[in-house]
Design brief:
A hairpin with a 2-residue loop joins strand 2 (about 15-20) and strand 3. The protein is globular. It has helices spanning about 25-35, 55-70, 85-100, 115-125, 140, 150-155, 170-180, 195-200, 215-225, 230-245, 255-260, 280-290; strands at about 10, 15-20, 20, 40-45, 75-80, 100-105, 135, 160-165, 185-190, 205-210. An eight-stranded parallel sheet has the order 9-8-7-6-5-4-1-10. It has twelve helices and ten strands. It is α/β, with parallel strands linked by helices. Helix 10 packs antiparallel against helix 12.
Length: about 300
Amino acid sequence: MSASTFTGTYTALVTPFANDRIDVTAFKRLIQLQVRGRVDGIVPVGTTGESPTLGYDEHLEVIRLAVKFAGGRIKVMAGTGANSTKEAVYLTQEAEKLGADASLQVAPYYNKPTQEGLFQHFSAIARATKLPIMLYSIPGRCGIEIAVSTVERLAKKHRNIIGIKEAGGNADRVSQLRQACGPGFTIMSGDDGLTLPFMAAGASGVVSVASNIAPKEIAQMVRAFAAGKNTAALALHDRLYPLFKNLFIETNPSPCKAGLAMLGLCSEEVRLPLVPVTHETRQVMRRTLKGCGLL
């Protein structure tokens, strides 16, 4: 499967809970919304899916359900990264067995490996699977950045490392990565508010939190910009920009789940150490959804 397959809008799905268990009915509802919104794919059990607080069995059950409910209509890029290489290898191999189309691999968090450690970590995962792998650099959460030189080494060494979700907030990294890895290497924005600047520099789309709530609008924005309809894309960006910002006024995904609850799609429930948003944030989210024409 070529890198160009993984472009457009991929939704970093929340994992809905009910009484501390996976809410299967709500999860199906969320995926049906994504299909109707014509996104290109979904990313179950990434960090927006609260992967650190899911057990192995739960993690794999969410992937199984995502593949089942997507039904081949949209791609499933399973979040199978971890700060333990053995865990990441295990989850990735199991995701491959479950029928995922690709794997998203976040940089190991907390333990802060060196760049050589990152190279060895991602190499071990790439050797253990045939799935296409998209790296995920988010230094604000992980404390480290996957250096451009490390991405280049990995892309040259492993044919199944096909792209990166770039969430460092720096559009110049897009150009640096394109220079190092070539135009065939997929770069996806990891920040909704930077999707258009990143695409202008050569990124191929976004792994989006906002598309949990507004899949149709985000997919339209990305498609419009890719087709050269910059004015239409910018109009959507401007309309949705308050949503992009306010989804992060408290720790993700709590504001997103608050918004989804207002739309009747799932509960606000998150797992400790995350907590539901404050009353003040809930009011901000309600105003935001109304202002963006989503509620």
